Give the backbone structure.
Amino acid sequence: MSNDIVLELVDIRRRFPGFEMGPLSLKLRPGRIYGLLGPNGAGKTTLLDLVALQLKPTAGALRAGGTPLRWGSRDWKARLTYVREVVPFYDELTVAETLRLASRLYDRWDPALAARLADTLELPPDRRVGRLSKGTKVKLGIASALAHHADLLLLDEPTAGLDPTVRAGVQAVVRDLVVEHPHLCVVLSSHIFEDVEETASDILILRNGRFAFQATAEVLRASKLYRTAAADAVGPSPDLLARWTRKETAWLLVLGDSALDADLRQRSDHVEDNPASLLAAVYHGAGHTRGDNR
Amino acid sequence: MKPGPLWVLMGKDLRLHGLPLMLVAAGVLASCALAMRFAPHTGAVTGFVFNVNMLMALLLTEWLIARERAARSFAWLRTLPLDDRALVVAKFLLAAVFCVMLWTVSSGLFAPTLWSPWGTGLVLQCSLLVFGALCLGARWRINWHYAHLAPLAVMAAPVLLFTVFAGDDTARRAALTALWNAPYGRPLAAGGLLLLYLSVVWTTVRWVERADTYEFVD
């Protein structure tokens, strides 16, 4: 059993009419925030649904602690919280009643922590959920996640439709979560680059149901982007993080200060590119890859 | 000690729908009282009491299932560490308790002839339970606003068959009447209906256990 892995996805697939998700393999580790980027229809929600046992995989396995998860496993659901884009709490219940309902269904519920979180996140206990803003509903979801000591928090587009101030607030809450609760792993799905740039420690880009790019934020920050017309001048290399081609021009994302980086710096047919957002460049480019991405 | 998930879920539904349920039940009893006051004969009151109980079963489905589907709150419940069986059984149990209470009170007060002999009232009670269960099961499984028509069709089928194949003064009618009046006739019918009720609950449980969540949210 490996304690440093919250969940392992092993060649997970899910087939729909006209769309196939996967095969996807991934290891989710505690203390990390995985920023899941992708355009609409890329499969972000499907991936979260698979992890939360809301969708049955067509093939592959989910493993927690080395053991395959059984469909509908209560033990697994007790370890995670899934906050959807449209938070489906009961509009008629108040915040306090919603937390009370959750407290009766989770074995590991910590009432003192729930009360403290409600206070910290400024949740109005007597207000009906139907009268809360989306941002506050997301905070309610986060409070219910932490109060039962979840190991995995799944956030599906938590900031979509929020104004920049509230969005920054949610980003700050997510960032602080992992610092305060190092056992927690967060998967945050979004199509807003800033959300992922501000919060994520790991970047996952999904396109057409597959990972088009995977790297840690540190690696991405330290990497260099080169532009070249000589598309085939560089072969496969462990230092080459991603490669894509558009209109006769090829871009190479290279591990910073690596042998390949040093090599390309010397070559006149490769020009270093400095986009405003490296993540945005990779996101847009990763859809046009030739299969070299890691 | 924490209450079991079944009771938590039933308590949640009572908190959400308890007051409207009480108000509608009071309205049903008031309308039965009015029917008793103005109806031309006892048979009309009996029919009214039964039909209004059937309507309540339909209405209950709207509250217990359709709203959860539309608000997607089933999706939240399904992420909680709950057994799918508890999720389904809680709905059926609450609906059954309400159906039994309403039928017992309304028929006892306004159609007491149904309980003399007692077996008739019991069989009608069981048929209401089956109808309620079919409504819940159909609304759960069918993503269509008029899913209630399915149980109505299911209930209409045996009535139609009875009318066609056992008309007045036929040998079949006489045999069925004799079976109904036999000491074991009504308990047998009630038992059969209860088995049908349990099979509807069981098939719904099996379906929910296997279904992806999106199949039971709108």
User: Anything to note?
Assistant: The two ends of chain B are 36 Å apart (CA to CA). Residues 5-216 of chain B form one domain.
